[in-house]
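Quick one, probably user error.
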């Protein structure tokens, strides 16, 4: 398996074969009129500039009708039509611009390595910034000569681990962007922090009265606070969507024409199939009750905590919990077109939708770095 770590900017490979066209076709959803949708996971997406680059690259491919990025789930929904009977090379196009991708699936990881890296970097930056600020107060209040020089040297020693360790999150992201001929907001951050530290170190070694180690480390500290909070909130949104998706069973018990029962994958259930729902199981796909009576937990659909009755002729939706008695239902939809699947898609669309001000900010961020730095060099 191959995956991309957005925190350290490296592509880690564990003998992963490229995704075949057949896999793309099998994992895609038929939308009608020959259009299909494929959901890709792109872990390297982390800002508005990344979103714009991914969407622009995919839309430029032959056969691609639209591409929409969800920053919280790091997911790209691509609508396409086959060209010459084959799907567009979605994964290859993204890899060429530095965004390795794979087919999206809901996975519940017990640990979040990205959050752990952010918290460690935040702790180092906070410790160093706090102590440098204490030394800077003494300089501001009149320390001069050898005392000021000593405080600046100690501040440089404290700032070095913060610049090197805490700043790596921004440096590697900026280098990855520049290496593929684009910019993101981590580029000006990296330049500003590095130049502030380098100039301060130069002035300190030459006995200059001013140094800015406190500004460089404090900037890293506050930027990491924002990035950590952003990551936590997006992880909560991602967990809400994936938690809803996990309500869908992975399989269903089909009652064959001879009365035998067979457990099959949920994707193999066709409309018209007779399904057996035992007490304590969730309804796998939308359907109508054929036989049996029971109580259903309908809170997923109506928000009402009180159970509702189910009897022959009752319409049931995927994700409802069967509470008291066995039921047999007749499927009326595929799993991908069920109520639960549609709810997941609506939540993703609502969470990933971009307001007008956000679209303006994305366009501004794409121009900010090259324009500002060009003006600075000219000046």
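Nope, works fine. Designed sequence:
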């Amino acid at each position: 398996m191959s995956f991309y770590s957005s925190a350290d900017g490296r592509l880690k490979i564990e003998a992963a074969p490229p995704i075949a066209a057949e896999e793309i076709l099998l994992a895609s959803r038929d939308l009608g009129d020959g259009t299909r949708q494929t959901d890709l996971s792109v872990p390297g997406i982390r800002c508005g500039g990344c979103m714009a680059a991914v969407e622009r690259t995919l839309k430029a491919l032959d056969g691609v009708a639209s591409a929409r990025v969800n920053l919280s789930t790091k997911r790209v929904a691509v609508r396409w039509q086959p060209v010459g009977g084959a799907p567009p090379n979605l994964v290859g196009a993204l890899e060429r611009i530095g965004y390795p991708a794979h087919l999206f699936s809901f996975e519940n990881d017990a640990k979040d390595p990205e959050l752990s890296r952010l918290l460690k970097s935040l702790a180092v930056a906070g410790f160093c910034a706090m102590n440098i600020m204490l030394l800077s107060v003494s300089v501001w209040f009149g320390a001069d000569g050898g005392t000021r020089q000593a405080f600046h040297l100690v501040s440089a020693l404290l700032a070095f681990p913060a610049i090197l360790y805490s700043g790596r999150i921004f440096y590697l992201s900026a280098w990855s962007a520049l290496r593929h001929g684009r910019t993101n907001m981590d580029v000006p951050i990296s330049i500003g922090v590095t130049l502030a530290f380098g100039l301060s170190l130069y002035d300190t070694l030459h006995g200059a009265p001013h140094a800015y180690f406190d500004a460089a480390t404090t900037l890293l500290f506050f930027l990491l606070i924002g990035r950590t909070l952003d990551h936590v909130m997006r992880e909560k949104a991602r967990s809400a969507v994936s938690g809803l998706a996990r309500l869908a069973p992975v399989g269903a018990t089909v009652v064959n024409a001879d009365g035998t029962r067979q457990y099959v994958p949920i994707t193999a259930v066709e409309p018209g199939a007779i399904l057996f729902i035992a007490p304590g199981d969730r309804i796998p796909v939308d359907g109508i009750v054929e036989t049996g009576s029971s109580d259903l937990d309908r809170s997923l659909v109506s928000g009402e905590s009180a159970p509702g009755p189910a009897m022959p002729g009752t319409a049931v939706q995927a994700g409802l919990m069967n509470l008291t008695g066995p039921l047999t239902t007749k499927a009326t939809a595929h799993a991908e077109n069920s109520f639960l699947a549609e709810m997941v898609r609506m939540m993703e669309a609502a969470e990933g939708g971009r307001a007008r001000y956000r679209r303006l900010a994305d366009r501004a961020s794409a121009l900010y770095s090259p324009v500002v730095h060009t003006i600075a060099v000219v000046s």
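Confidence is low (pLDDT under 50) at residues 1-17.
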